[in-house]
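name: query_chain
kind: protein
chains: 1
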Amino acid sequence: MAFKRVLIAEDSSVIQNLAKKILEFQNFEITSVKNGEQVLQLLEKESFDIILLDINMPVMDGMECARQVRKLADPAKAKTPIVAITGNARNYSPDEFKSAGFDDILIKPLNFDALVAKVREFTGGEE
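structure:
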């Protein structure tokens, strides 16, 4: 069975490493990057089943990155589910997340059960 591919964009190595370990334990294949620009560079060459996107990142933040993903020329990649990871969701309204192209939001501090559940929900991963 092919592993579902998860792209994590998060500038905190601690959160990145924890999320990676937890999702790998659930048999997801994880790629992690530090900012939105790296997400777009990767998407030129590869496809993912879901993108977990931190909102506050250097170079290109999560909001801008999500908008760019939605504009990709490849329709399959442009439709990749994107889940926001944010410590300050109150800075944006649910509509702003939606219009940027996010499918859902996870609030920090991350609840790892919720993380796994979300990734499964959007990738059709096995229980």
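note: The longest helix spans residues 13-25.
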